[in-house]
Design brief:
Blueprint: H1 7-16, H2 21-38, H3 42-109
Amino acid sequence: MSTIFDTLTYVKRLRDAGESEAVAEAHAMAVRDLVLDQIATKEDVALLRSELEAKINGVEQRIKAAMDVTREELKGDIKAVDTKLTVLQWMLGAFVALVAGAILLGLRLGFSG
């Protein structure tokens, strides 16, 4: 494990700068406590990761559920459009047949345009 804050080296530097051993050690402990209080532990990171994974899974589930609902709604809409297109195809076919019949009838009766 790497050292986050080397108190021994810190104390030595303070002593070399003229501080007493007691002041240097007290200062080193205060700085160490401050640094360690701000550092996340492996457990902190693991807990945060677990919480984030749970939230992501929840969001994924909500998205999947919304997609399933949308898919079903679209299936219904597509079926309705398909039904309308089928009706329009029949209507167009009937119209073409009527026009063709009228043209043939007109030709038989001798009408010209």
